[in-house]
Write a sequence for this structure.
């Protein structure tokens, strides 16, 4: 069953994703943007997996949901570390 | 399992939060951006905590919070992305600002941003540096308060008074006082622009053009000077195209004036082809300038406006740009120079010719280098190559060794006394020829008195010297001739008297011998007297011959007789160490010649032969033979021959002989091998001259130490003298004709009378010319002939003949004289003088002449 909060997350995530795709050229200027974007994509995929588990293969999609949440957290952590490292090395002055 | 995964997720969120907190200090993230990012991590952490708790089974009361959290997380993602993009934009703006600031701050132009009321909102560092104030003192202050120190408006008010459209950019230049002194600034003022904050601003960009302005002024000044110079230059300046007929693009006043045009504009309308007198030359010049690029100083004939031709020296430089080829050049009028040059050349040519004619050359000596420059005239005189530089040794070698010391001494004296050097000396040329020169020179000295240069002339006076020598010789010969003439006059006088004395001796002794019986001593004595008188008569004849009393008229001459006389004379003159051998054919035909000249030929050849044998003695052989022309000159053309017969006179000696070089020159006048004073060198040339007159020839053969042979050929007369007249020894007798004999010497008159009587004439002898004239007047027809002495008191023979002719024009006269052949001219003074008798007169001669006069038809 599709819950209300899941629907809100899906709509908001989809809108943000579309916005990110349309402004991709500007996002590319963010240092190590790939990790950040993949983190968001993993978060959005986890939301999709949450909705999917209500209709089919609930265990698998549930597991995928949690794994994707963890992936998103890992990628966000990796981006943060890379981002700050980038400026520590003086690249930020470029 | 799920719980463990969530725990890891939560752990990573904690780690991310730790990184954010620990590392964000040195990042470009702003505070709000950091908060947003932290919020996202926090929300994600809380969310993962809630689902961890749920799956860990610890409590289920957080599910509502989990759902709330989960709904907010996407929004936080959106905030984070927005913040990050904002950060990127900010960074980009900063970078851009930094870049433009760098440009502005390093720009030499002054950049100002001002409000419409001219308050400065931005000033570039270059502006601050220029006015010498920090940026802080400038910003916010009106520009005029900073720069308008002289009470002048810095910016034109009209720009701001809206008299000029403020939306349009403006440009103006202004001198302002700066920390570097007064500078000229050029300002570009932008149109009024509205900034993002809604305020209107001007952007003013100023440039310091002080140096540029000065340079431009300098350039303008130079341009002005160049134009002034060009206008006032005396040479024509032009620029012209070269295609087609050629077009003048620029000319100056001088060019127009040179070609006779009133203005440059008038000249500019004329095609270049019309200016060149010879268009072929123009085409040639164009060809050359295309090939070489530059033509310098080519002379061209140019046509003036009035058609007159001038000559210009043209120098051109080809200029080639993208589209055109043209020439820049100058023209200098060289017509006068050319005329002057022609005049100079003409003058120089005349000068050279004058030098050549006058045999004068000039030279210059550079004392520093001791070298000599000389003219062509001097080169001709000294027979040295032209245009060489001689050194002192060369000149010394040319001067005659005997004159060298004198020349050097005189030259040194003239330098020392600073006077003109002037002397005559000799040069010895490379071929050994000696030339006399008259040399003069002056000297130049520098300010210190040092001798620097000598300039001199040399005149060839060899001919003058030769002429002087000739003159001297001629004068000597003249004196000799005068002496001879005096002797001749004396001899003539003596001969006259002598002949008068001999005439009766000769006549009476002959008659006496004829009247005495044969083989008696008295007859022999009378005959001896007659022969002695004949020899005396010959002697008188010789005296008259050698004293040149004889006429120089050509007459039939028996060379043999003259030759015999000459041999006698030579024999008496030369020493006995020289033997004379003669072989003379006496019956030769006569030669039409002057006996004196024949004598001269013989004497000259004999004298030369004697000279050749003077030292060692020898034999002089003189022979005369009559030969046929064809035997002598088989190669001679018939037309060249003077006659059938020639006399061959050979004079041979056994003396020292001559080499070929001497033989080649022996007939040259003044050539002699004799010592000075012994010969004039004119002997053989005189012989040649005489032979040329007579149509004769001469040849010479010689061998060293063997002797010399001169062969002289004289043409004989075509007609032989009458044999009867020449050979008759019996005088022709008369037929009782009456003959009047007049001679102031009574003895001579009586003797002639006796002779005529013996010749069967009827003579009347008188010793006075006046008496004779009276006799003729008394009976003009009585006498068939008058024989009169030439020289008599009262009336001479000629005067008597003239007066007698008035009485009887047919009365013939025979003049008698003891003056020899010198009186033959007297015969022409009166037509009735028919012949002349030379004293002493023999009976045969008297009979022959009287008979010839009375019977001319015989």
């Amino acid at each position: 069953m599709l819950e209300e909060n899941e629907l809100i997350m899906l709509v908001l995530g989809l809108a943000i994703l579309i916005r990110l795709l349309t402004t991709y050229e500007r996002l590319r200027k963010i240092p190590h943007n790939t990790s950040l974007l993949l983190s968001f994509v993993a978060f959005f995929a986890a939301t999709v997996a949450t909705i999917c588990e209500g209709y089919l293969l609930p265990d698998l999609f549930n597991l995928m949901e949690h794994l994707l949440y963890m992936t998103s957290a890992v990628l966000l952590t990796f981006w943060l570390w890379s981002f700050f490292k980038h400026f520590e090395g003086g690249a930020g002055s470029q | 399992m799920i719980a463990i995964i969530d725990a890891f997720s939560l752990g990573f969120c904690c780690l991310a939060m730790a990184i954010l907190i620990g590392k964000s200090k040195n990042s470009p993230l702003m505070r709000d951006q950091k908060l947003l990012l932290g919020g996202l991590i926090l929300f994600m952490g809380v969310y993962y905590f809630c689902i961890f708790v749920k799956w860990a089974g610890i409590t289920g009361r957080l599910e509502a919070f989990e759902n709330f959290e989960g709904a907010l997380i996407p929004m936080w993602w959106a905030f984070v992305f927005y913040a990050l993009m904002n950060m990127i934009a900010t960074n980009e703006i900063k970078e851009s600002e930094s870049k433009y600031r760098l440009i502005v701050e390093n720009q030499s132009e002054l950049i100002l941003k001002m409000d419409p009321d001219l308050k400065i909102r931005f000033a570039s560092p270059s502006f601050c540096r220029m006015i010498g104030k920090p940026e802080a003192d400038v910003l916010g202050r009106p520009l005029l308060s900073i720069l308008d120190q002289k009470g002048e408006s810095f910016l034109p008010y009209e720009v701001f008074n809206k008299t000029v459209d403020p939306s349009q950019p403006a440009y103006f230049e202004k001198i302002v006082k700066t920390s570097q002194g007064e500078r000229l600034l050029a300002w570009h003022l932008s149109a009024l622009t509205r900034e993002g904050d809604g305020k209107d601003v001007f952007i003013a960009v100023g440039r310091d053009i002080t140096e540029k302005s000065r340079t431009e002024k300098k350039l303008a000044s130079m341009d002005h000077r160049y134009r002034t110079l060009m206008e006032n230059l005396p040479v024509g300046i032009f620029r012209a195209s070269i295609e087609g007929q050629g077009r003048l693009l620029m000319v100056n006043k001088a060019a127009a004036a040179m070609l006779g045009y009133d203005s440059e504009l008038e000249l500019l309308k004329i095609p270049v082809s019309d200016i060149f007198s010879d268009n072929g030359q123009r085409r040639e010049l164009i060809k050359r300038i295309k090939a070489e690029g530059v033509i310098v100083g080519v002379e061209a004939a140019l046509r003036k406006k009035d058609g007159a031709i001038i000559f210009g020296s043209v120098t051109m430089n080809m200029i080639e740009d993208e589209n055109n080829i043209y020439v820049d050049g100058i023209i200098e009028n060289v017509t006068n120079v050319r005329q002057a040059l022609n005049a100079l050349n003409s003058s120089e040519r005349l000068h050279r010719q004058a030098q050549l004619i006058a045999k004068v050359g000039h030279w210059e000596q550079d004392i520093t280098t001791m070298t000599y420059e000389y003219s062509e005239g001097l080169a001709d005189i000294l027979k040295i190559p032209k245009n060489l530089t001689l050194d002192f040794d060369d000149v010394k070698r040319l001067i005659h060794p005997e004159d060298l010391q004198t020349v050097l001494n005189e030259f040194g004296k003239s330098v020392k006394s600073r006077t003109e050097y002037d002397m005559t000396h000799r040069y010895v040329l490379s071929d050994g020829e000696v030339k006399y020169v008259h040399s003069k020179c002056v000297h130049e000295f520098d300010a210190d008195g040092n001798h620097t240069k000598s300039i001199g002339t040399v005149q060839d006076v060899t001919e003058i010297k030769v002429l002087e020598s000739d003159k001297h010789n001629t004068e000597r010969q003249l004196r000799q001739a005068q002496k001879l003439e005096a002797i001749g006059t004396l001899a003539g006088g003596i001969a006259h008297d002598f002949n008068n004395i001999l005439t009766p001796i000769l006549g009476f002794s002959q008659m006496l011998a004829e009247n005495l019986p044969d083989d008696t001593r008295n007859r022999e004595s009378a005959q001896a007297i007659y022969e002695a008188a004949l020899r005396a008569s010959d002697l008188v004849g010789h005296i008259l011959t050698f004293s040149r009393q004889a006429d120089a008229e050509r007459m039939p001459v028996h060379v043999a007789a003259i030759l015999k006389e000459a041999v006698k004379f030579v024999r008496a003159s030369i020493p006995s160490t020289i033997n004379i051998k003669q072989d003379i054919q006496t019956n030769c035909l006569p030669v039409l010649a002057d006996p004196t000249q024949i004598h001269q030929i013989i004497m000259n050849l004999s004298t030369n032969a004697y000279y050749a044998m003077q030292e060692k003695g020898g034999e002089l052989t003189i022979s005369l033979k009559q030969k046929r022309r064809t035997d002598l000159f088989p190669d001679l053309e018939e037309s060249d021959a003077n006659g059938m017969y020639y006399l061959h006179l050979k004079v041979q000696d056994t003396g020292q002989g001559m080499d070929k070089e001497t033989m080649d020159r022996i007939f040259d006048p003044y050539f002699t091998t004799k010592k000075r004073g012994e010969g004039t060198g004119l002997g053989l040339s005189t012989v040649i001259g005489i032979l040329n007159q007579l149509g004769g020839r001469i040849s010479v053969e010689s061998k060293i130490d063997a002797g010399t042979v001169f062969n002289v050929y004289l043409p004989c007369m075509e007609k032989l003298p009458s044999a009867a007249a020449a050979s008759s020894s019996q005088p022709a007798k008369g037929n009782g004709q009456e003959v009047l004999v007049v001679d102031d010497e009574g003895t001579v008159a009586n003797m002639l009378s006796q002779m005529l009587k013996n010749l069967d004439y009827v003579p009347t002898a008188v010793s006075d010319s006046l008496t004779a004239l009276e006799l003729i007047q008394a009976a003009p027809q009585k006498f068939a002939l008058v024989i009169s002495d030439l020289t008599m008191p009262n009336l001479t023979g000629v005067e008597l003949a003239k007066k007698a002719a008035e009485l009887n024009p047919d009365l013939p006269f025979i003049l008698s004289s003891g003056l020899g052949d010198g009186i033959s001219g007297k015969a022409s003074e009166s037509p009735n003088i028919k012949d002349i008798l030379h004293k002493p007169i023999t009976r045969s001669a008297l009979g022959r002449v009287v008979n010839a006069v009375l019977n001319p038809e015989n």
Remarks:
- Chain B touches chain A at residues 1-2, 5-6, 8-10, 12-13, 15-16, 19-20, 23-24, 26-28, 37, 40-41, 44, 48, 51, 55, 67-68, 70-71, 73-75, 77-78, 81, 84-85, 87-88, 92 (CB under 8 Å).
